[in-house]
């Protein structure tokens, strides 16, 4: 599949500039409500392996680490990963592995992860990449594994009074897509079943849909 690398390079530059200037408009502290939903769905009392794509500064990692999970935090840019390292440096017990990379080329062996967690990457992908996304994840997910998504809902607003006629916009050099509740069941295709969904509003204009999926283990 041909990927519009120029557009994604612009998005990478947007996120790099946001972290370097501290003009960060997304949640930075406190784990998402998606995390306990993932832990319940995974049902692995002795821990497991989790990959968070687009981990940012690591706000969602602590609950997994506290339960002895093996955690990989991956982000498109290096700056937030340095903050993950700083935040977890003094903690006792397990620490996350850090990786700068993107979902287009996931450098992991097949079936290695029990859970893959994405709060904020999927909703920046164009339609061709969103359609390919589940295939990228299923290659490295164990059969019956869990995927968690946090995506913009149709009620998300960049600014007070924002109006949109489409379910996507180009905003400050990056692509934003907005999802309705009825979009969720087939968001990852027929081989992923929706386990649970909810909404989350960490700020007055922020509104996300959070969803947990289970992979059937049948990518074909």
Describe this structure in words.
- The structure is a single chain.
- With 220 residues, the protein is α/β, with parallel strands linked by helices.
- It contains five helices and nine strands, in the order ααβαβαββαβββββ.
- It has helices at 5-21, 34-42, 62-66, 79-88, 127-140, and strands at residues 49-53, 70-75, 97-100, 113-119, 141-152, 168-171, 174-177, 192-200, 208-215.
Order of helices and strands: HHEHEHEEHEEEEE
Strands in their spatial order, largest beta sheet? 3-2-1-4-5-9-8
- Major sheet: 7 strands, mixed
Low-confidence parts lasting 5 or more residues at pLDDT below 50?
A: none
The radius of gyration computed from the alpha-carbon positions, rounded to a whole number of angstroms, is 16 Å
Task: Tally the beta strands.
Answer: 9
Q: Distance between termini?
A: 17 Å
Helical segment count: 5
Structural class: alpha/beta
State the share of residues found in helices, binned by percent. 25-40%
Mean pLDDT: 91
* Shape field: globular
**In percent, how much strand structure appears in the residues?**
25-35%
Q: Which features does this protein show?
A:
7-stranded mixed beta sheet; 5 helices; 220 residues; globular; alpha/beta
């Amino acid at each position: 599949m041909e990927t519009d690398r120029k557009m994604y390079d612009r998005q990478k530059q947007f996120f790099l500039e946001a972290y370097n200037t501290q003009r960060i408009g997304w949640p930075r502290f406190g784990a998402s409500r998606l995390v306990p939903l993932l832990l319940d769905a995974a049902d692995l009392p002795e821990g497991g392996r989790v990959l968070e794509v687009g981990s940012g500064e690591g706000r969602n990692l602590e609950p997994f680490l506290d339960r002895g999970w093996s955690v990989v935090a991956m982000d498109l840019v290096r700056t937030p990963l340095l903050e993950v390292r700083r935040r977890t440096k003094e903690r006792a017990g397990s620490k996350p592995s850090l990786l700068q990379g993107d979902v287009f080329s996931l450098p992991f062996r097949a079936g290695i992860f029990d859970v893959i967690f994405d709060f904020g990457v999927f909703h920046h992908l164009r339609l061709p990449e969103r359609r390919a996304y589940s295939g990228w994840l299923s290659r490295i997910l164990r059969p019956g594994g869990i995927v968690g998504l946090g995506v913009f809902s149709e009620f998300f607003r960049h600014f007070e009074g924002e109006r949109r006629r489409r379910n996507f916009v180009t905003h400050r050099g990056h692509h934003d897509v907005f999802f309705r509740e009825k979009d969720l069941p087939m968001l990852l295709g027929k081989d992923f079943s929706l386990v649970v969904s909810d909404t989350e509003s960490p700020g007055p204009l922020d509104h996300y849909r959070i969803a947990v999926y289970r992979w059937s283990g049948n990518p074909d």
